[in-house]
């Protein structure tokens, strides 16, 4: 069960305060030369204000942090939370690389609203405590999610698909649709941007209103429905708690589901379901942790592109030149799902075009 309340998913997006908006931080001066007070002011804006007192006693200037290791963060700043250390390293890497990522504009408050949108509000407190922001979402690993108490395989897939939708939409904070459109037959490129609430509204529209509330906390959103080939009408029926003996109701759901995802995606789901060695997606499967040591982030700033496979949703952002379903995966994105490679080839050969729009420009 998840706890209701807190930040609403329908609230407007919150963008993080950047160094540009902080008068104490002079971007014309290299971070290594920032004063102790400038560093502490940045930590406050970055959501790590609880470490300011110890930081003030330790650092001489910005170079102290740039030269430090994760062990130093823990020893000198009292930074026990591994994701706080990762957040700090990602922030420091942004200063040294001088690369501006769109994901960095989304702060940890926005992430809690995003969790509402993708149907996983039960993790909001843990993500908030870890100060997970947009940049961290981009670089989440399986072990990070396990640290955040996300153990369900289905929930891992939900977050993975949701991150991919963010990638495709260049981390536009408004890319998920919180209300269904007027169209009677939405295209897959529209459904892929549906929030959990949109999926529940669709259930009501297809006369399954009685079961719609069961999707709260399920992690079901449009991206999961479209992008994960193992997610079928049977998976949805399980999550909705539709009894197996209600065969007519399940048949009605299967028909509506097929119409929603479209013929190409539906064929891919059938092909996968009929494949040798098919492992059905269950609602109870758990994810096992990868064995990593304390210094798993110690070389974060030196990662090579081929190491991006460690991330839960690795992607080649240079390959994403257009929004929509037709450019779901780049060559470096292999392994996102066991069968998405085949799906992308089918979609690309079929010439399925994206019809998404950027709400910022409208």
Offer a quick outline of the entry.
The chain is an all-alpha fold and 362 residues long.
Task: Indicate the topology.
Layout: H1 36-45, H2 52-58, H3 62-66, H4 70-77, H5 82-97, H6 108-117, H7 124-129, H8 134-138, H9 142-147, H10 153-168, H11 188-191, H12 196-205, H13 222-227, H14 233-239, H15 247-261, H16 263-274, H17 340-350
GO biological process, one term: neuromuscular junction development
Region (Disordered): 1-22
Organism: Cyprinodon variegatus (Sheepshead minnow)
Describe this structure as you would to a colleague.
By secondary structure, the chain is mainly α. Among the domains are: 31-99, DNA polymerase, domain 1 (Orthogonal Bundle); 103-151, DNA polymerase, domain 1 (Orthogonal Bundle); 152-286, DNA polymerase, domain 1. Helices cover 43% and strands 0% of the residues. It contains 17 helices and no strands. It has helices at residues 36-45, 52-58, 62-66, 70-77, 82-97, 108-117, 124-129, 134-138, 142-147, 153-168, 188-191, 196-205, 222-227, 233-239, 247-261, 263-274, 340-350. The two termini are 38 Å apart. It comes from Cyprinodon variegatus. This is PPFIA binding protein 2a. May regulate the disassembly of focal adhesions. Did not bind receptor-like tyrosine phosphatases type 2A. Belongs to the liprin family. Liprin-beta subfamily. Residues 34-98, 111-169 form the SAM domain.
């Amino acid at each position: 069960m998840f706890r209701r309340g807190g930040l609403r998913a329908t609230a407007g997006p919150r963008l993080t305060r950047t160094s540009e908006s902080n008068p104490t931080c002079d971007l014309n001066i290299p971070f290594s030369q920032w004063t102790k007070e400038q560093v502490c002011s940045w930590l406050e804006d970055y959501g790590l204000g609880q470490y300011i007192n110890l930081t003030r006693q330790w650092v001489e200037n910005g170079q102290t942090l740039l030269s430090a290791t994760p062990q130093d963060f823990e020893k000198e700043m009292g930074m026990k939370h591994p994701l706080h250390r990762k957040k700090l390293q990602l922030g420091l890497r942004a200063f040294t690389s001088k690369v501006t990522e769109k994901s960095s504009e989304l702060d940890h408050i926005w992430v809690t609203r995003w969790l509402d949108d993708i149907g996983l509000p039960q993790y909001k407190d843990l993500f908030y405590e870890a100060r997970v922001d947009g940049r961290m979402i981009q670089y989440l690993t399986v072990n990070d999610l396990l640290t955040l108490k996300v153990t369900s395989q289905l929930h891992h897939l939900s977050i993975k698909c949701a991150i991919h939708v963010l990638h495709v939409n260049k981390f536009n904070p408004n890319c998920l649709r919180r209300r269904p459109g007027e169209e009677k037959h939405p295209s897959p490129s529209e459904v892929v941007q549906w929030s959990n609430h949109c999926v529940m509204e669709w259930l009501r529209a297809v006369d399954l209103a009685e079961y719609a509330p069961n999707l709260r906390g399920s992690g079901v959103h449009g991206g999961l429905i479209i992008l994960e080939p193992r997610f079928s009408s049977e998976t949805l029926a399980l999550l909705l708690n539709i009894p197996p003996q209600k065969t007519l109701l399940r048949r009605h759901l299967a028909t509506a589901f097929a119409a929603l995802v479209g013929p190409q995606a539906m064929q891919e789901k059938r092909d996968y379901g009929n494949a040798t060695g098919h492992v059905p997606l269950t609602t109870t499967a758990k994810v096992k942790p990868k064995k990593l040591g304390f210094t798993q982030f110690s070389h974060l700033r030196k990662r090579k592109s081929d190491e991006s496979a460690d991330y839960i949703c690795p992607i080649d952002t240079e390959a994403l030149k257009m929004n929509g379903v037709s450019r779901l995966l780049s060559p470096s994105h292999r392994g996102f799902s066991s069968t998405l490679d085949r799906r992308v080839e089918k979609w690309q050969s079929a010439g399925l075009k994206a019809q998404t729009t950027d709400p910022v420009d409208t």
